[in-house]
């Protein structure tokens, strides 16, 4: 690779020896990233490997402590994103930096509306936006209100905006996270057209599949360092995985066969609407049995959030019922659900599972505060709770200086362990685990998976909802496919291929044998 | 669970260290003290610029605030409503509600107390005083609960509704003072009738105006500390204020919690008003003193911690009681005291901003929409514990 970077085509971006320290941590500990003009270059790494920090350094949001950055061959020292944009860089954030109430055109010209005049030459702007959209196949109605557009379209607006600002090198931060498979395909086509037009693309991802599908070359970073750059067509998924993780990767969880028992959690014909009033669940039914892990897979935005919130008592179902251990618990509040025997590991550790500024002990109180032995007659039993927290920390290997440490100071893995400790301590009958390993490193993922299997083996029902198909395939005894608010497929573990599931998740494929779950 | 419980009973743990927040205010308070010192130094500069001698001025200010029994009494008298209303600000703030309506709540509390005292019921002090205080607290509490309830039900922002309710409270007060055919009031002196002796807060110290209101304020601070940090009630308030999402997850009702917190907030402000009417004035004057607004600063400078609020209340009380002597003996304009108050607020605010900056670049992470910032922070935390050897490893070969 060295030859190619040195003597090959002109370079779009050269980052050498980038070091970026934060208090107590080195997020980038010496990263090299060489991106040639006109290529799609994947930046591959686990969550927490330092990808986003690196891109923020490149984009001028952070200033590197050490290292050299050259853009289009010129050494740069950006003082902010505006400089980066001026140098021809464009960033498409994972969560779009757009204004929902503005039209597409207004969003595109946002930030480059011109500072010298008060007048906005709307027509000229609209013409340019239309020309750009035409040139790269970014079909989108320039007059539509952004908030009315689906996610894939909104992403195109972000790309358009970067192009409008004159970007020659486009950075995409995990761009497929919120897209359906079809939208992902369209995105790939757009990126290919951009490349044909001479554009350069840096594609940040942690998914090997995406590297193979779209990139020309790939740079792998692990724990803040570049561990290798490969030509995509000359490497294998296994090699990349090992580079990324740093050791041989075990693809399957060790899991004895399940012995499902009686139904413990049953949902019947759930109907609910989403935040904007759209139909989110359209008659969803499922049955979770004791002693099994039931996986629900599907592309994000097909009703997972609504299903979880209804089961967790955070949202009301318009129709249908939920039954826990034979008792109706439809639209019951979270406290009553906990008492009835449901535990819930939420997807969002920072905004749901924990109060980050609370101590670990106070976080163990979350959802338990009103129950003995945590409190008696409204008075919190601090000693008992603290001792309990201490023992949970030992039992679940939560590494923290003390129970009085604020949760914010813990690593993601330790935060998740604390949540799991709290939720399992209640000895629930049914466990709702939503994206339980999101953002965790490999060691923590293995721990969480082991805990879930252990719970299953103790006769609890585990409902696993994940957007990570591999996690679903690894852990589930039975798999349901969620599509547009309905279960559109049910499979026994080991009796279904990824391809089949993938097609089902996109609403296609399979014959009609995949009956709706009982 | 049973095994865990048996463990816990043998726990050797010290009490209350389990709370990050109950004690975490201590270093914050110490740095607040530093901020106050900085403010006083800058204030000295301002005094010097006006052509006065800063040392003489401060000496007079200090003597006027603490120099003798009378001065000390005046400081405590001035601090009393500030502490009570400042506690009110703190409890609302802990629940995530910014109560700018303390002034209105305080006015209604003072008015209620003044009217009840003015009626001159033939009751013993054992009954009369508590009755007046409770009525004032309830009046302030209701006035506080209204914006809490509106926020809970409709999302109406408390900064708007509390300011509107302030004006409404002023009008109610003016109308009540004018209605001498209904209430025991004296429209001529724009006040209620003198409160019956049995309804008044007793004097504490001969030769001073110090009254039992300061005891009320200190007791309220202790009770509030206990409520906030040792009960499920306070836990709910703090959880809601720090993370509405996590509170919902735990089954804590946001609307009910903020409404209750605002009730308590208004209740404390109402008591502050009552203490002033029944302790210092002996009647309620329909004159805006602005305790409720200064109390916002008291709450903030005290870091919304009951102990801090008490100290901040004493500081602001000292500034206002020392101002007169500073003007009289040093010739420094008493408006300088307002400059000093402003400087204290400013330097504490600057301190808060700096401590945020020192958390790396976490300001980025604090903006909810800045996904990039949040990711960076998670980069940091996930590597913080697991990767101590990061820095010691050699660089990988360049590609």
Description:
The complex is a heterodimer of chains A (518) and B (399). Chain A is α/β, with parallel strands linked by helices and 518 residues long. Chain A has 18 helices and 22 strands. In chain A, strands 6-7-8-3-9-10 form a six-stranded mixed sheet, with helices on both faces. In chain A, strands 16-19-20-13-21-22 form a six-stranded mixed sheet, with helices on both faces. Chain A has a four-stranded antiparallel sheet with strand order 2-1-4-5, covered by helices on one side. In chain A, α5 crosses α6 (151-164). The longest helix of chain A has 16 residues, at 181-196. Chain A starts with a helix and ends in a 13-residue tail after the last helix. Chain B has a single domain (24-356), classed as Orthogonal Bundle (ABC transporter involved in vitamin B12 uptake, BtuC), CATH 1.10.3470. In chain B, strands 1-2 form a two-stranded antiparallel sheet. In chain B, β1 and β2 (191-192) form a beta hairpin. Chain B is globular, with a radius of gyration of 24 Å. The chains are: A alpha/beta (518), B mainly alpha (399).
């Amino acid at each position: 690779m060295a030859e190619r970077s040195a003597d090959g085509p002109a370079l779009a971006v050269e980052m050498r020896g980038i070091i970026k320290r934060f208090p107590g941590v080195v997020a980038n500990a010496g990263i090299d990233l060489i991106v040639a003009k006109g290529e799609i270059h994947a930046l591959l790494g686990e969550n927490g490997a330092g990808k986003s920090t690196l891109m923020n350094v490149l984009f001028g949001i952070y200033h590197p402590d050490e290292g050299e950055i050259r853009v289009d061959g010129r050494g740069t020292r950006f003082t902010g994103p505006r400089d980066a944009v001026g140098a021809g860089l464009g960033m498409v954030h994972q969560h779009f930096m757009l204004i929902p109430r503005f039209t597409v055109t207004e969003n595109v010209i946002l930030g480059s509306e011109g500072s010298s005049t008060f007048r906005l030459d709307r027509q000229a702007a609209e013409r340019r936006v239309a020309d750009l959209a035409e040139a790269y196949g970014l079909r989108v109605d320039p007059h539509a209100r952004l908030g009315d557009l689906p996610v894939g379209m909104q992403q195109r607006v972000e790309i358009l905006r970067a192009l409008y600002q004159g970007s020659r090198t486009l950075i995409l931060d995990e761009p497929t996270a919120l897209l359906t498979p079809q939208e992902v395909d369209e995105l790939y086509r757009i990126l290919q057209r951009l490349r044909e037009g001479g554009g350069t693309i840096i594609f940040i991802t942690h998914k090997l599949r995406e590297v193979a599908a779209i990139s020309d070359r790939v740079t792998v970073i692990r724990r803040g360092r570049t561990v290798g750059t490969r030509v995509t067509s000359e490497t294998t998924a296994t090699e990349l995985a090992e580079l990324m993780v740093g050791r041989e990767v075990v693809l399957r969880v060790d899991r004895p066969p399940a012995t499902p028992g009686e139904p413990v959690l049953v949902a019947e014909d759930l109907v609910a609407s989403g935040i904007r009033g759209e139909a989110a669940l359209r008659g969803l039914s499922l049955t979770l049995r004791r002693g099994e892990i039931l996986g629900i897979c599907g592309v994000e935005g097909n009703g997972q959030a609504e299903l979880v919130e209804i089961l967790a008592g955070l949202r009301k179902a318009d129709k249908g019922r939920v039954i826990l251990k034979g008792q109706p618990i439809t639209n019951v509040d979270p406290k009553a659900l906990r008492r009835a025997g449901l535990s819930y590991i939420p997807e969002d550790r920072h905004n749901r599972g924990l109060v980050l500024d609370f101590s670990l002990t106070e976080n163990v109180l979350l959802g338990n505060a009103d129950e003995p032995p945590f409190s008696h007659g409204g008075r919190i039993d601090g000693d008992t709770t603290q001792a309990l927290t201490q023992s949970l920390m030992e039992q679940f290997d939560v590494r923290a200086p003390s129970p009085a440490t604020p949760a914010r100071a813990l690593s993601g893995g330790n935060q998740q362990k604390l949540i799991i400790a709290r939720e399992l301590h209640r000895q629930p009958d049914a466990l709702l685990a939503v994206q339980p390993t999101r953002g965790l490193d490999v060691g923590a993922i293995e721990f969480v998976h082991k805990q879930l299997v252990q719970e299953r083996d103790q006769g609890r029902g585990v409902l696993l909802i994940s957007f990570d198909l591999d996690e679903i395939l690894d852990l589930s005894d039975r798999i349901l496919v969620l599509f547009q608010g309905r279960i559109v497929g049910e499979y026994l573990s080991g009796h279904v291929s990824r391809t089949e599931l993938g097609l089902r998740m996109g609403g296609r494929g399979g014959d009609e044998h995949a009956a709706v779950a009982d | 669970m049973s095994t865990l419980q048996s463990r816990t009973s043998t726990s050797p743990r010290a009490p209350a260290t389990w709370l990050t927040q109950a004690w975490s205010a201590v270093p914050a308070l110490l740095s607040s003290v530093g901020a106050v010192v900085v403010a006083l130094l800058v204030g000295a500069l301002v005094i010097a610029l006006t052509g006065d001698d800063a040392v003489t001025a401060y000496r007079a200010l200090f003597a006027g605030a603490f120099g003798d029994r009378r001065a000390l009494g005046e400081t405590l008298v001035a601090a009393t409503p500030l502490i009570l209303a400042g506690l009110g600000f703190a409890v609302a703030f802990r629940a995530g509600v910014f109560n700018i309506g303390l002034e209105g709540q305080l006015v209604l509390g003072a008015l209620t107390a003044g009217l009840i005292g003015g009626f001159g019921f033939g009751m013993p002090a054992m009954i009369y005083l508590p009755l007046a205080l409770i009525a004032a607290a309830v009046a302030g509490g209701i006035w506080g609960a209204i914006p809490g309830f509106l926020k809970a039900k409709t999302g109406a922002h408390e900064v708007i509704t509390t300011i509107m309710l302030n004006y409404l409270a002023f009008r109610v007060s003016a109308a009540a003072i004018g209605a001498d055919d209904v209430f025991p009031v004296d429209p001529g002196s724009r006040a209620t009738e003198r409160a019956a002796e049995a309804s008044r807060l007793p004097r504490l110290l001969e030769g001073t105006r110090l009254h039992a209101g300061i005891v009320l304020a200190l007791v309220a601070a202790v009770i509030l500390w206990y409520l906030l940090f040792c009960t499920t009630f306070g836990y709910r308030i703090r959880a809601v204020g720090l993370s509405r999402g996590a509170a919902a997850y735990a089954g804590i009702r946001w609307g009910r919690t903020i409404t209750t917190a605002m009730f308590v907030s208004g209740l404390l402000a109402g008591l502050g008003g009552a203490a002033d009417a029944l302790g210092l004035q002996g009647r309620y004057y329909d004159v805006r003193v602005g305790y409720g607004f200064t109390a916002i600063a008291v709450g903030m400078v005290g870091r919304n911690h009951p102990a801090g609020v008490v100290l901040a209340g004493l500081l602001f009380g000292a500034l206002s009681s020392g101002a007169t002597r500073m003007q009289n003996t040093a010739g420094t304009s008493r408006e300088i005291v307002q400059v000093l108050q402003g400087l204290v607020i400013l330097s504490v605010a600057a301190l808060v901003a700096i401590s945020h900056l020192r958390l790396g670049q976490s300001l980025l992470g604090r903006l909810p929409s800045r996904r990039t910032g949040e990711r960076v922070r998670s980069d940091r935390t996930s590597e913080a514990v697991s990767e101590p050897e990061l820095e010691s490893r050699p660089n990988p070969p360049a590609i």
